[in-house]
## 1
Amino acid sequence: MELQEAVKGYEEQLLKSLQESIRIRSVQGEASEQYPYGKGVQDCLDHALKTAEALGFATIDLDHQMGWCEYGEGEEMVAVLGHLDVVPEGDGWSFDPFGGEIRDGKVFGRGAMDDKGPTIAALYALAALRDSGFPIRRRIRLLFGTNEETGSNDMKYYRSHGGEIPVMGFTPDGEYPVINGEKGLINVNFSRNYTQDGDVRILEIHGGSAPNVVPAEAKAKVVCPAELAASLLKKSDDRIQYEKTEEGVQITAAGLSAHGATPELGVNAIGLLLEALCELPLSEEADRWVRFLEEKIGLETKGTSLGIEMADEISGNLSLNLGTLEGDDHSAALEINYRYPVTKSYEDCAQILEQAFADAGFTKTGERHKKSLYVPEESELVQTLLGVYADHTGLEPIPKSIGGGTYAKAIPNIVAFGPIFPGDEVREHKPDEFIEVEKLMKNAQIIAEAMYRLAK
């Protein structure tokens, strides 16, 4: 049986299973021993495993943390890594976010694209490959993840509890043709206490909502004499607005939001606010930390003044975003999101940045780090996947490196491969998330072929 025809034969079952999966609200919930990520997530894992069993595959539920099914024999294993957890539905839907409705050739619902659609497609692709009878020398394991959206603790558990590492594989949770490079990602928190005296003092400061978003607005309330307040009110413009308050002024900076992976596309409102604060006669300690942040970061996006600017030909420049800043009259806390090129390392930048903040009186209070991922273009894995993509689309297969991160970082020897085709609208995490039936089936065919070529 031809492999692609075998995939097409499962279309009705695939769509039914995807609808059933979407109808399970698998948003992370209250944890318990039986439901480490909440009952909804476990229900969705149970559904996937039962579907796999009905298709004739042996399955494993690893302590309710994640699960898998497997086909084939052999000492080596290739993996397809998908996830069943989803982000909350949010507002603005025209359809039931957990209805799995099919209309106008599209399957609607949270997870349809990210990542239930591709994961269920991979399950039926595996069944089609088995039905085809094509010989393979490596086992194929389909991993059902349950915590991709909130930390990938599922895969940390898998790895720490003896989970087999594939010789190669992919996650259909990114883009085509292949994402073979992902920058290293660091979120780091700093705080500082300080004292103030004099007539001009910071009362409150606030900017940003998340480290990976360029803040569009930042505000500060400042105590100052009436004469200074009056002069500041005359300086308001499109970017900086001054409003009179009982104590002095409120300063509001208006920037332009952008994703933390591409901060150069935005204008950091915290940086604008720091510029405005530097023009005020603040007391010594307040002026020191404000001026440090303005001079060392401000509106910069490459870490230049902090001494960590670097780049490579594969993934471009280090990017840096001052994502949040919170403070009152005696303390300030901030979080920075920065991403280093794929051929560089944590050691190339983190210690330099931390020393600069330590010298300015800040204390590091937290940090999260995901190492960079890079699989050379000439590798067997990347070349195989590029060949599958080219054969099925007729498009030029050029791999890409990104500033963001995918599920591929959770397991060694994995890259992101699909499900989004070039030119497609990015729909995950948005209202009315959907996947076209035609492209769902196209993904299933591509996944089936990729499984076969990697395992044969």
## 2
Amino acid sequence: MKATALLTAALLLISVIPAKSFGNTPITVLVANSVTNPPNQTYSTFVVFRGILLGGLTRLQASNQGFGFTYTEDPNYGPFLQSVNGLAGSAEERTYWQLLVKKPNNSIIIPDVGIGCYIPAANDQIILKYSTY
């Protein structure tokens, strides 16, 4: 009886969510450095349906030897972006990696969450910007 109820609930859920919702969500990642101003680097990747940015960055790192990143795990705030392409933020130099998102309508937002919680929308341009504070 329980199996039948679970199957019915699953089928009902699938019928409510459009099929295209289960596909991959394409995003681009732009790496910018406002401190020394080298040329920007742009990469393409995707997140799975309702997946987090950390998954997309991990996928990009695994599939593209030109992109790499590291992060630390803060017990209160989750993953904290530490370095991109070998360049790390530094308290001594007052530098850090800022997360920005350029939406398809060209507006740029500062997410109120980090790479471990941000869920990209289709065609978001994720901007990882090396900045000073």
## 3
Amino acid sequence: MARRNKKDASRITLGALAAAGMSAVMGLRALRKQHVSFSGRTVLVTGGSRGLGLVMARQFVAEGARVVLCAREEVELARARDELQRAGGEVMAIPCDVTDRVQVEAMVSRVHERFGAVDVLVNNAGLIQVGPLESMNEEDFDEAMNVHFWGPLYTTLAVLPEMKRRGWGRIVNVSSIGGRVSVPHLLPYSASKFALAGLSDGLRVELAQDGILVTTVCPGLMRTGSPPNAFFKGDHEAEYAWFVLGDSLPGTSMSAERAARKILEACRRGDAEALVGLSAKVAALARTLAPNMTAAMLAQFNRMLPQDGSTERFRGSDSETPLTRSWVTQLTRWAAQRNNELLH
């Protein structure tokens, strides 16, 4: 009798696995048919006043979407809105701190009043803190988690009821390759981006049954023009130098426009994940196939970086040197001018 029960249990298990496999195949076939147009859709982009967020907003506008920008800095936000409206876009700009759930809910209510429900949410708001672990304090980690984890969670929870009611929606969470491979001197950033990637992957699994597809985006270095607005600790000039050089060189970074196109295509298809850029793909593959070697290489890279533990914080714009103002970083400076990243 016990043997028969074991055989029956095995058959049930195999049957369940077979059914799950068939469901997965059918799901993949269904996904191939879910390419969408953004024309007439309401798209909310957090951190949309500059950098990658603004570049994505331009592309959504070009496809005929109604675009909502949110950011904390009102002057930058107004400039971004005016630019998109001059390009013929139907645009709404709302000052909002996504780390404040009350502000997020009020923002989504204003969007409903003007455009109706949000069809596509792009969680893009972010900040970068660079420096060795010794220079970071608990507040740095709190700040990164608030922006990169709690902010996306609050905005997602705010738009979910309407998406579930309609049985359709797209959510894009812009994590980072730093959310798959932890990079030296970016620990608060990487830790919080790992948290966002985990949240995003879990949302994908749980919300698919409601017709909501969640895409986790992990870009490598992009020439968005953001280094002047990043924060640096320790030997801030040396930290800024290595960071902005990596961000500027065509061999190590990709243009924000190309990255944005890849993100929009991943959203259009409803992909589970988008590794954007060759460096992101290589780093993720190396971490998966050779974790010990990858860790050893990153540890060696860490030894080459400045080790000053000073906790005073500076913006990138306050950390310039003759090297970072030279022709070597010209691509980043052009991107900063194009993408509303210059401080005024």
## 4
Amino acid sequence: MELPPCFRLHPTDEELITHYLSNKLLNSSFDAKAIAQVELNKCEPWDLPSKNLTWRHEGYFFCERGPKYSTSLRTHRTTDTGYWKSTGKDLVGMKKTLVFYRGRAPKVEKTKWIMYEYRLEDSYDKI
């Protein structure tokens, strides 16, 4: 897929939730050409730019949220080399800040990779 030259994607938080995320969840034929679907648990942060056509200093992705354990409500956020850790409090109720840490406890290294997780109400927790 190709996007027009000089295409930039700079949606607001509201546009991300109301236009992209809600349409993705409620309309199976919705296609956001500028936002790729990825499995964040199988992708390291430094590999993400190659999966996004609009990447410059940031990118947008759809990703299904999976449970950490089959009987758990906690979200699985680990990769082969590290994990995404939630920091601070939830912002705007449906936006969470995540920081990537390389390694496993007790030897971990905080990286400069930051991700914002947007979600709809709990009933739409799948993506």
